[in-house]
Amino acid sequence: MKKRRKRIDYGKWGYIFILPFFLIFFIFSFIPLVDTIRYSFFEYYRSGMTEIGPNFVGLKNYVSLLHSDMLKYAANTMIMWLIGFIPQIVIALLLANWFVDARLKIRGRQFFKVVIYLPNLIMASAFAMLFFTLFSTNGPINSILESLGWIKEPIDFMGSALGTRSLVGVMNFLMWFGNTTIMLMAAIMGISPDIFEAAEIDGCNSRQRFFYITLPMIRPILAYTLITSIIGGLQMFDVPQILTNGQGSPDRTSTTLIMFLNNHLKSKNYGMAGALSVYLFVVSAILCWFVYRMTNNELKATKHQLKHKGRKVK
């Protein structure tokens, strides 16, 4: 009789290797998340040396936030995110398309890739301190403008809502456009060269290639970029916090939702902080779902049109 060979189950080793991740996620992420949601339904804060709560209050914290300045801070966050994201995605698309296009024969591509990615390696706090020094009333920018005779008095860049928001948007743009460019370059390089060759034979110019081939083919990566950027924008904290010394000046026009959340945590108001965290989670989920559905539906429609055209050709 032939001996049966003992079967080795390699599948269990995969579960063993990923088990530490799930344990760490469960202990340090999932349990605090559930606890945050639980605290959002309780009155729990500290008044002086007296700790009040936790007392169950239901949806009182959520209603109180709607009657606070939360919506104003949400508008501040979205404005500063848009100031940084719009030039980020436009310039990243242009650079990615130029660097990948073999016909342009750009020299030193690797050097330029490294240069545009370098700002992403700099800490946001360092960026904020740098811009605070550059654009202060006694900073180098005002000194240069005065020496050139373009201005007579120093400009208080951080004394106006437009100036402060613009500085925050520019910093976010500089920190992230390199990372976005690299991702979009990888997406464009994933498109089959045969498609571009066929388009060139058919007489497509550069603009038509970009809008009718490149953009539709990299739509999943664009959706990913938009979703991650939205999440990062809602979590905007370090740059405006350091630039305005936590004041959100002028007149709290640069105060973001996370700065508002941080104020509740500093005052030990855990109930309101928990409710605000849940609001942020829900808004992030809704926006990401909307972006995903929009891009996914467009992608399905494009594939359907291509199949339909293919049947007609046959």
UniProtKB/TrEMBL annotation:
Family matches, as SUPFAM superfamilies: MetI-like
GO cellular component: plasma membrane
Membrane spanning stretches: 12-34, 78-99, 111-135, 167-189, 210-231, 270-292
InterPro entries: ABC_transporter_permease (IPR051393), MetI-like (IPR000515), MetI-like_sf (IPR035906)
Keywords on record: Cell membrane, Membrane, Transmembrane, Transmembrane helix, Transport
Membrane topology: Multi-pass membrane protein
Record flagged with keyword Transport: yes
Domain named ABC transmembrane type-1: residues: 74-291
Record keyword Cytoplasm present: no
Full protein name: Lactose/L-arabinose transport system permease protein
Record lineage: Bacteria, Bacillati, Bacillota, Bacilli, Lactobacillales
Main location: membrane
Family: Belongs to the binding-protein-dependent transport system permease family.
Compartments, as annotated in UniProt: Cell membrane
PANTHER family, sorted: ABC TRANSPORTER PERMEASE PROTEIN (PTHR30193), INNER MEMBRANE ABC TRANSPORTER PERMEASE PROTEIN YCJO (PTHR30193:SF37)
Top-level taxonomic group: Bacteria
Species per Swiss-Prot/TrEMBL record: Streptococcus lutetiensis 033
Leader sequence residues: none
Alphabetical GO biological process terms: transmembrane transport
